[in-house]
Design goal:
The protein is α+β, with helices and mostly antiparallel strands. Helices cover 23% and strands 40% of the residues.
Length: 136
């Protein structure tokens, strides 16, 4: 189901809780909502659509990558950039890392550890910040 984008900063500043199999409907809602906002959005966290769960989705160009309970376990090559967010007006300066390693579960709850770089890494960092209640 396509969900409205949450803009309530008090809600967005709350940390997300671990996700489990009962949260698979949230994954579907994230997929549907990202698809509906594809022209202006490259990633989403579950709290952006009203769920305080550790689930993100990232448009990788080839397919959308769902990460459940993601944790960035390593990062290198810091740089400064500006980002926007569907939940906030305008853009803001932030520090990101050119290379990251993420540990996460897929939709079958199988654990993966994967390296990412460049723009995909930046999107993942933005969405993982959402899970920690951090807004740009």
């Amino acid at each position: 189901m396509i969900r409205p984008i949450v803009k309530d900063v008090l809600f967005l500043n709350q940390k997300a809780e671990s996700a489990d199999r009962s949260d698979l409907p949230v994954v579907q809602d994230l997929e549907d909502t990202l698809r509906a906002n594809r022209e202006r959005c490259v990633g989403m966290a579950a709290n952006m659509i009203g769920y305080r769960k550790r689930i993100i989705i990232v448009a990788t160009g080839l397919a959308d990558l769902v990460m459940i309970n993601p944790v960035i376990v390593a990062s290198s090559e810091p740089y400064q950039t500006e980002e926007g967010c569907l939940s906030l007006p305008g853009t803001r300066a932030t520090t990101r890392y050119g290379k990251i390693t993420v540990r996460y579960q897929d939709k079958k709850f199988i654990w993966h550890t994967q390296d990412f770089s460049g723009y995909i890494a930046q999107i993942i960092q933005h969405e993982c910040d959402h899970l920690e209640g951090i807004l740009i």
